[in-house]
Write a structure and sequence with these properties.
Layout: H1 6-9, H2 18-30, H3 35-42, H4 44-51, H5 56-61, H6 67-76, E1 81-82, H7 83-87, H8 92-98, E2 101-105, E3 108-111, E4 114-119, E5 125-130, H9 155-163, E6 169-175, H10 181-186, E7 190-197, H11 200-212, E8 219-222, E9 234-239, H12 262-271, E10 275-290, H13 295-300, E11 307-318, H14 319-329, H15 337-353, E12 356-368, E13 376-380, H16 390-404, H17 408-413, E14 415-418, E15 422-427, E16 437-442, E17 449-452, H18 454-462, E18 464-468, H19 469-480, H20 484-490, H21 492-500, E19 504-507
Parallel strand pairs: 6-7, 6-9, 7-8, 9-10, 11-13
Antiparallel strand pairs: 1-3, 2-3, 4-5, 10-12, 11-12, 14-18, 14-19, 15-16, 16-17
């Protein structure tokens, strides 16, 4: 259980005062305290600097006396503002009474939490609540090393939100909710949302996030992993867990309290039995790359029985880079040098004991199929992608279903269409009669590129859903003077690859 005391929760606004949250929300919107309003006020450089935990550009941009500037200084920059000034903008007395604000002396008021505007996927104006100084983690340090601190929206949060499949569902679970951003997204397409966290402070802040964003309340439960929802199943499970591989539990928001990558492994392995048929479980995770073991085999062993899986390694860091990242995240680089060295040594000792060469980071998506032939894809893809990717993820699994139920003979009688925004590139010496390589490249989704031969390129270019694959190959055989039987025999493997990677999509003639 978390060691966060109930007295520490009393320092937060009261989630029971929904009327105050609604009035506060109205006041924020009236002052254009939104993601778009901030961008217009601050300008792109200062707005981007806030995401790096750098506040000086925003302080310089808010020297005026407009309501929006006052709100930015109060809630984003945590600067005291004159009581009389804020009384023209907010329901100050109600905010003081319910704990959103406190008296700061000298006739000023100060915020008790960070409130950050966040734009929803369909233009919604949402607000993410977090602890003061903790709206964004990362290399700048969180500004506090208190165990129960609750962070706001960072790159990991938005990545998970972007890759999540957003089809309407009856039930969704946000495991390790933190400030509540995943629960907030889920509330838009799930009839029932359950959110859990080991840290009671996080559950309290999630209530604030949902209330201030005008979202329905979620079923909030305290506990570790799947303990709070024992015996229950869901159509969607999402989790940005405390995945950091550290020498010991220290910060609740990032350190899972298990050795190595055991927390992520346990979470993935236990998710299968918590999913309804056809349901998705989507996680961010870290994993060890260990001497004498293929990392792909390690991750395949995590996939629970009855589930298809798509695992994408997005980044790899050597153990020194990894240790330095998370030492900076906790602000340890600002402490006594001897203490920093001791903590750094502890990280390296931990990795050495576990024979860890480096650490991978990426996405894990499971889908419950109960198929006798599960599809498990483990790949490395460090290249830029186009978010949101939820539809891309869904279509990946739909294609696996298709390939699993169609043998080569069925493929040749099927119809296909070239996916949107796929282009062909030819690489070769200037003036050469034939290109050395033909590459198909996606400009959407995963933005993959794959080499094809001239038959594969010609086949993909003709696919518009009107002709079957077999008839297209027969025409190509006649054109290039090749035996059509041999061409039909050797091409299905290339067609499968193009379908699997999303270059071709099954079409109804």
């Amino acid at each position: 259980m978390s060691t966060v005391s109930q007295s520490s929760l009393s320092s937060l606004p009261s989630p029971a005062r929904a009327d105050v949250a609604a009035r506060l929300r109205d006041a924020l919107l009236a002052a254009d305290f939104t993601a778009d309003g901030l961008l217009e006020l601050l300008g792109a450089p200062a707005y981007a600097a806030l995401a790096r935990s750098e506040t000086v550009p925003a302080l310089r941009a808010t020297r005026g006396d407009t309501p929006l500037e006052a709100l930015v200084r109060l809630f984003l920059l945590q600067q005291p503002v004159a009581h009389a000034r804020m009384a023209d903008v907010l329901p100050v007395e109600e905010c003081l009474d319910s704990g959103w604000l406190v008296q700061a002396g000298g006739g000023e008021v100060a915020a008790t939490v960070d409130v950050r505007p966040y734009g929803g996927p369909d233009g919604e104006d949402w607000f993410i609540v977090s602890d003061l100084g903790c709206a964004v983690g990362g290399a700048g340090g969180i500004g506090s090393r208190a165990e129960g601190v609750v962070l706001g929206v960072g790159g990991a949060s938005t990545t998970l939100a972007g890759i999540t499949v957003r089809t309407p569902v009856a039930s969704a679970l946000d495991l390790g909710t933190g400030s509540g951003i995943q629960a907030l997204h889920a509330a838009q397409h799930a009839t029932r949302v359950t959110a859990t966290d080991l840290n009671p402070r996080a559950l309290h802040i999630t209530r604030l996030t949902l209330a201030l964003s005008g979202a329905p309340e979620a079923d909030l439960r305290q506990g570790s992993l799947f303990e709070p929802v024992a015996g229950e199943t869901y159509d969607l499970i999402v989790s940005n867990p405390p995945f950091v591989i550290s020498p010991g539990p220290r910060l609740t928001y990032r350190d899972g309290g298990m050795g190595g990558d055991d927390l992520c492994r346990t979470l993935v392995q236990q998710a299968g039995e918590r999913l309804n048929p056809g349901g998705y479980a989507q996680f961010l995770a870290n994993w060890q790359q260990v001497e004498g073991e293929e990392w792909t085999d390690r991750l395949r062993s995590w996939v629970p029985r009855g589930c298809d899986a798509w695992i994408v390694q997005r980044e790899v860091q050597d153990i020194t880079q990894y240790a330095e990242l998370w030492l900076r995240d906790a602000g340890d680089h600002r402490t006594d040098p001897a203490e920093y060295v001791a903590r750094y040594d502890a990280w390296l000792d931990e990795f050495e004991a576990r024979k860890t060469r480096c650490v991978g980071f990426g996405w894990i998506t499971l889908r419950r199929t109960d198929s006798a032939e599960p599809s498990i894809t483990v790949e490395e893809w460090p290249h830029p992608v186009e978010q949101p990717l939820g539809d891309t993820v869904r279509r990946h699994f739909e294609r696996q279903d298709y390939l699993r139920t169609h043998d080569d003979a069925s493929l040749l009688t099927s119809h296909f269409a070239l996916a949107a925004e796929v282009v062909q590139e030819q690489v070769g010496l200037p003036g050469a009669e034939d290109p050395e390589h033909v590459v198909l490249r996606q400009h959407r989704g995963m933005r993959r590129a794959t080499k094809v031969d001239t038959v594969g390129a010609g086949f993909a270019g003709v696919c518009d859903g009107t002709l079957s694959a077999g008839r297209i190959l027969d025409a190509i055989a006649q054109l290039v003077g090749e035996d059509p039987v041999l061409l039909r025999d050797r091409t299905p493997a290339q067609i499968r690859l193009l379908i699997e990677q999303g270059f071709l999509e099954p079409a109804v003639p």
